[in-house]
């Protein structure tokens, strides 16, 4: 009898290890494949582009991670991002007429944050105090934010043709023009065309801001009482309440945090593209949820990590970038991401069965 149990235990342990690490393995396989068939995939500038371009998805996914681990979901983040980009664009256009540009930009950020956080507060209050399903509540807020965004935008992108607006979203920390040493924050003046072409640019501001936010989110979820409460609520809301966790307050905070991160993505979008677009985040919503599920978070709550979400976002970004480099029709990206999402859910169910053995 003992001989029969030992192999089963070893098989279960090996399977659990495989399902826990599959995202890392899959990311490694993708990188190996694209490095062979995609010229320049492992080039420095391409790698920098991959991690920079995934910033918007990653910010949405960070907020989504808190909601999903707590046993919920936030379907409104895509249009909260769009709403923040449109409102901040409108404000900076208006305020730049009578304020210095730095103050106009600061005012746009503050107003954008206030407007963007409001949907998260409403979501959290309704879900926590009225015990409504997060899927239904945030789906309703998706429609509200969508309509409000298009109303503010008058149905079209809000362009911000002001010199200096794009600096925060497009400049780099370090510039290395040939023969000119190093320059910080912006390229030196007086460069020739050849020097501009050969100049090395490192660490875009957009990436730096995203990395700081990701580190804060990792700390919040893994090292604070708030993070412990998020896991407890996702594991069992009633058990968390009985153990003294302020479930109502934490739930509201989770959805406010999710909306805040979506708002930050909208602000970065406005500064990067010098434009506010109502549906800026709509195509990113599915990718953000996919990043969380691919990263190992359970859609039933109580399980997941920010590191896993980061790996999930990297898988999506590498997949999309690699397919473009290889020259495959961009529409195949949607099919590829969809297949990976289904694979992630199947592995999640396999983990649940293994845990139950």
Describe the structure.
The longest helix is centred in the first third of the chain and has 36 residues, at 2-37. The two termini are 17 Å apart. Helices cover 73% and strands 4% of the residues. The chain has a single domain (40-356), classed as ABC transporter involved in vitamin B12 uptake, BtuC (Orthogonal Bundle). It has helices at 2-37, 44-53, 55-69, 77-95, 101-129, 134-153, 167-170, 193-198, 205-223, 225-235, 237-242, 247-273, 282-294, 306-326, 332-356, and strands at residues 158-159, 172-176, 183-184, 200-204, 275-276. Helix 10 crosses helix 12. The strands form 2 sheets. The protein has a 3-stranded antiparallel β-sheet with strand order 3-2-4. A two-stranded antiparallel sheet has the order 1-5. With 357 residues, it is mainly alpha-helical. It has 15 helices and 5 strands. The radius of gyration is 22 Å and the shape is globular.
Query: Would you list the SSEs in sequence order as H and E?
Result: HHHHHHEHEEHEHHHHEHHH
CATH topology: ABC transporter involved in vitamin B12 uptake, BtuC
Spatially, the strands of the biggest sheet line up as 3-2-4
Nearest-integer average pLDDT? 85
> What separation lies between the terminal Cα atoms?
17 Å
Just name the CATH architecture. Orthogonal Bundle
Tally of separate domains: 1
Q: Strand tally, please?
A: 5
Number of helices: 15
Q: Please bin the fraction of helical residues.
A: over 70%
CATH class term? Mainly Alpha
The multimeric state of the shown protein is single chain
What amount of the residues lies in strands?
A: under 5%
Cα Rg: 22 Å
Helix-strand category: mainly alpha
Question: Runs with pLDDT <50, length 5+?
Answer: 1-19
Which outline best applies?
globular
